[in-house]
Amino acid sequence: MERKAKISRKTAETEISLELNLDGTGKYDIDTPLPFLNHMLSSFAKHGNFDLFIKATGDTETDPHHLVEDTGICLGMAIAKCLADKSGINRFGFSIIPMDESRVTVSLDIGGRPYLAYCVEMLSEKIGNMPTILIEDFFVALTTNALINLHIEKNRGTNSHHIIEAAFKAFGIALRGAVAKGTGRLVPSTKGVI
């Protein structure tokens, strides 16, 4: 079964079209008015080996919050849709990624219960036209809609760009490990369902 999803979301503030293939080759085309978000989502797709295509527009002049959060909602919905009943996946994923002076640890459980533990302190308040505080909002929206338990922890680092990029790369690699087929046709839970 193909693990692909298309998600469209239109509100009074944003319009997003997203396609995700969990069994891709790392192809991506990310088009939002936030160049730093484009860069982070491209890193996630490339290192996770996912095909990801996003076209997103919205009111970023007032505040890019809605666009970032809605993009997280759509990516979370796509992950959940791709996984369907979650049979045969590894379920758990883990990655530690260094980037220059920074190092970030990501661990996750595709266990059907959304939770985000985000322990990432930033020194820079903004990168380009995007406030760094919105990264946490993105991951809150994603975990809530993907129904995953996600822990992101900065082990060290001073450069906010490096820290965030290490987090997105680590998330891609951890998610790739978690969605990989490894348990035959069984749902990886003693309950029999996730």
Summarize the SSE layout with pairings.
Elements lengths: L3 E7 L3 E8 L6 E4 L3 H14 L2 E8 L6 H19 L8 E8 L2 E8 L5 E5 L6 E2 L2 E2 L2 H13 L2 E8 L3 H20 L15
Parallel strand pairs: 3-4, 7-10
Antiparallel strand pairs: 1-2, 2-4, 5-6, 6-10, 8-9
Helix pairs in contact: 1-4, 2-3
In short:
With 194 residues, this protein is of the alpha+beta class. It has helices at 35-48, 65-83, 134-146, 160-179, and strands at 4-10, 14-21, 28-31, 51-58, 92-99, 102-109, 115-119, 126-127, 130-131, 149-156.
Task: Explain this structure.
This protein starts with a strand and ends in a 15-residue tail after the last helix. It is of the alpha+beta class. The mean pLDDT is 94. The protein has helices at residues 35-48, 65-83, 134-146, 160-179, and strands at residues 4-10, 14-21, 28-31, 51-58, 92-99, 102-109, 115-119, 126-127, 130-131, 149-156. The longest helix has 20 residues, at 160-179. The relative contact order is 0.21. It is 34% helix and 31% strand. Strand 3 (28-31), helix 1 (35-48) and strand 4 form a beta-alpha-beta unit. The protein has a single domain (4-179), classed as 2-Layer Sandwich (Ribosomal Protein S5, domain 2), CATH 3.30.230.40. Helix 1 (35-48) runs parallel beside helix 4 (160-179). The chain contains 4 helices and 10 strands. Strands 1-2-4-3 form a 4-stranded mixed sheet, covered by helices on one side.
